[in-house]
Amino acid sequence: MEGIGNYRFEIKLSADKLEAGIILKVDETELDNIVVMESDVLKALQAQKVSFGIKHEVVQAICTTPANFANVFVTIAAGSPHVVGEDGYVEYPYLKTIEAGTGPKELEDGRVDFYNVTSIPNVVKGQLLAKKIPAGQGQPGKTVTGEPIAPKAGKEVILKPGKNVVQNPERTMIYAAMDGQVSFTDQDKMNVFPVFEVNGDVDFGVGNIDFVGTVVIRGNVLNGFRVKASGDIRVLGSVEGAELDAGGSIEIKSGIVAQDKGSIVAGHDIRTSFIQNANVTAANQIIVTQSIMFSNVRAGKQIICKGAKGIIIGGVLQAGEKIGARIFGNNSATPTVLEVGVKPELRQELASLQKELQDVYENLRKTDQGLGVLNQILQVTGELPPEKRVMQIKLTNTRLVLEKESKALESRKKDVEAELLGEGPAAVDAYHVMYPGIKMTFGKLVHFIKHEYARTRFMVIDGEISSTTLL
User: Domain Flagellar Assembly Protein A N-terminal region, which positions (predicted)?
Assistant: First the structure.
């Protein structure tokens, strides 16, 4: 506090020193007698080490009409906050050539072919597939007292090469190591797989398919048949009560009518127009344009049904992050179960990894103990007997294997922990309406819908399932 004549200044700094305020302290009886000089204001600021971001127009206003500022707090200096850099991201140059060729094509007789609009993302050996764009470093800031505020860099992104791809030495680009089709598998790893095409239905004329690559079916997959692929599976028709298992994504153009038979499992995403009486599981997300009816559907992250109909009725749906649909349920209050916010398979895997690592560390300890004893014998006697020499070689080889195993387990454990930490607030979004009959579960919290909700988001707030209106 700085006293000058018949008034004094009180300077207040915010906790982060990004703002300074001033109060002109004066007795009400002295309002007509005070004269404030600019040098007095600056001297008061200097006494509190305020030197940056001073609002000179405020200083002048205080000096010109001090009575207007008597005993009133006013901001007189503002610092410059640091700027957080933009997060890094990945560009996919190969998609530009694919997108340019999408859309229905006109045939020679003038008709339009609407049946072959699905674009197959084929690439050639040496083609650039992904490019890492580094995170921005941000901009430094400064407090009102002139102290620098360090910038904060954005979050870096990590390229995840899979099979049949190569990286440049800097690990900022991914190239195709062979001709084939791009496929994203578990943990968003980028792969290139060869393509196997079926020009009709998967029926008795074709039989079951098990292919180390990507499978494209230009017809339907009929009841009882199996299609397994290490890459993606793309079906331009429909899927009946069949078994589809893809390491990457599954795209079904027409939809799934399974009659409670078979299963659809993908290591990444599943996209289709409708799901009816089916068992469907995706490690990442499931995108449906029309409807999900009386099915068991599970996604590691999101289940979204947001097309023109966008309706979910019956069955059990589980998602780690969000379930969203235009309409949930119907006027008949058909029982429908929605479970969000838990990733039990990841938590189970983490517990298993921790147990495996513990066993590996214990075996490493015993191996090192054995090698230590042999080294002591060697130091004392100058050589090892033949049987001890054989034991030393075996223990050394065992240690190399255990070290390699521990590194692989530690890497996977780190990935799982990062994915669990990355869990955001789980939500259920009803973009149009949610009817009664819905059982909603967030972890251990359960909520039954007993009346209609319009344009509503449900999520856990302060330990309870709460609802807010969607804009």
Answer: 9-186
